[in-house]
Amino acid sequence: MPKITHILFDCDNTLVLSEELAFEACADLSNEILAKKGIDQRYTGPELLKDFVGQNFRGMLVSLQKKFNFELDPEEMEKYVSAEEGAVIKKLERDAKPCVGCDEELEKLSKSGKYGMAVVSSSALRRVVASVKKVDQAKYFPENHIFSAATSLDKPTTKPDPAIYLHACKVIGKKPEECVAVEDSKSGATAGVRANIPVIGYVGSYPENEQKEKYEMLMGLGCKNVMYNWSEFDKCLAEVEAL
């Protein structure tokens, strides 16, 4: 296996505890859309999070249209995507916190100088930047090494499409097998695996009673290993490098 030179981190609920906050805002807008389309279903933030974790809002709206058989025209889609971004950023700038133990590992990696580091997210770029700035993690990532499937690509997409990982590798000038991705969700891990990047799974942001199930799910998707806590990162990375 080639030498690992870069670590590519998912953002939401991997670096920053942002998913719950984001899905509160998403639920308000999703319910507004469903009401306008005459559909009785309504979502709470946690219900949306359970169904659509790892997807950006654009991808979620595509899934909702398929699930409930309605259509948003392109203008409506852009209006709601823009509204969601603003609402989520407001919540993140006020309340976002880092994932437990993550800062210590980022600091160690930064001081070691052994690896380049990048953020590879499905979320809109402004949202990702707002998240890492709020929790003081932006200092670990060069501005041009923060990538968004919703914003950084010519054609917006969302994980599990591997396009954003392949784009990130191209920009940083590395082959996928020279990188390691860290992911917490089904869609994110699938994107990394499809891009041929070794993936370390992370389940520490899930409720304790869900962690074993998520561990098994991530391993089943092809993650090389899965950590329950960020304190396990060194061990997991060493295992991947030894493959």
TrEMBL record:
- Tell me where the transmembrane regions lie: none
Q: What cofactors are annotated for this protein?
A: Mg(2+)
Which keywords are on file for this protein?
Answer: Carbohydrate metabolism, Magnesium, Metal-binding
Gene Ontology molecular function terms on file: metal ion binding; phosphatase activity
Q: Which PANTHER family match?
A: 6-PHOSPHOGLUCONATE PHOSPHATASE, HEXITOL PHOSPHATASE B
Q: What is this protein called?
A: Uncharacterized protein
